[in-house]
């Protein structure tokens, strides 16, 4: 449970993901996710009854808290875990149809950042999220928890190739690709046209080294958030919230 690489591989292979806490499990169910089983201590049975009672054929495993911590590798302080059926991801073309604001997460490896970016996307009107082949799993337990379950409400899928093929798909769907990057030719965010006349794909890069050179070459524009106080950049999750809000404001939403 605590080995990120092992869980990321095993969960995908077995077609499952883990949801933790009442709010997250509830949002997953409301979005149509199907539970395989529940795991909790006896004191949480009454609290979670409204959830597991919706699926009378799904087993509910109950154990002492010390045993559950041994099984999972962490204290279940949020009440319960649900093993859930991993949904089939939509095709990129289907996801882009009807969308006007898309976020592309390029190789974001920190699950906390991924979850926070999905939460910002949900709150600030992003229509869809694309994650690159090396991006962390949005359905990893920590990503889901940090997102407060919003990974279930924002349509998303994983690109098979990036950047060239992925950028081509965005262009074919009518999107302008805007790369958030500290480059010499970057335009200040508040000077960029983010109005309703444009379909935009906002590309945010990996923690530390930022976007790939090939991504910068393929993008239509480079955009930078104006900074003060001698600060040159924000955490990628914070940057995403700023950019998503600016797009929303320019749409008049």
Keywords:
4-stranded mixed sheet, single chain, 7-stranded parallel sheet, 19% strand, alpha/beta, 253 residues, elongated
Structure description:
The chain is α/β, with parallel strands linked by helices and 253 residues long. Helix 6 packs parallel to helix 10 (236-251). It is elongated and about 60 Å long. The chain has ten helices and eleven strands. It has helices spanning 4-13, 22-30, 45-52, 65-72, 92-96, 111-123, 141-146, 164-172, 213-218, 236-251, and strands at residues 16-20, 35-40, 60-62, 80-85, 101-105, 128-131, 156-158, 176-180, 187-188, 200-204, 221-224. The strands form two sheets. The protein has a seven-stranded parallel beta sheet with strand order 7-6-5-10-8-11-9. A four-stranded mixed beta sheet has the order 1-4-2-3. The mean pLDDT is 92. The longest helix is centred in the last third of the chain and has 16 residues, at 236-251.
Quickly describe the structure.
This protein is α/β, with parallel strands linked by helices and 253 residues long. Helices cover 36% and strands 19% of the residues. It has a seven-stranded parallel beta sheet. A four-stranded mixed beta sheet has the order 1-4-2-3.
Lateral arrangement of strands in the main beta sheet: 7-6-5-10-8-11-9
**Secondary structure tally: strands:** 11
Order of helices and strands: HEHEHEHEHEHEHEHEEEHEH
**Main sheet: strands, sense, barrel:** 7 strands, parallel
Q: How would you state the average pLDDT, rounded?
A: 92
Terminal CA distance reads 41 Å
Count of helices?
10
Considering DSSP H and I runs of 4 or more, what fraction of the residues is helical? 25-40%
Globular, elongated, flat, extended or rod-shaped: what is the shape? elongated
Based on CA atoms alone, the radius of gyration comes out at 20 Å
Oligomer: single chain
- Class of secondary structure makeup: alpha/beta
Low-confidence blocks of residues: none
Strand content: 15-25%
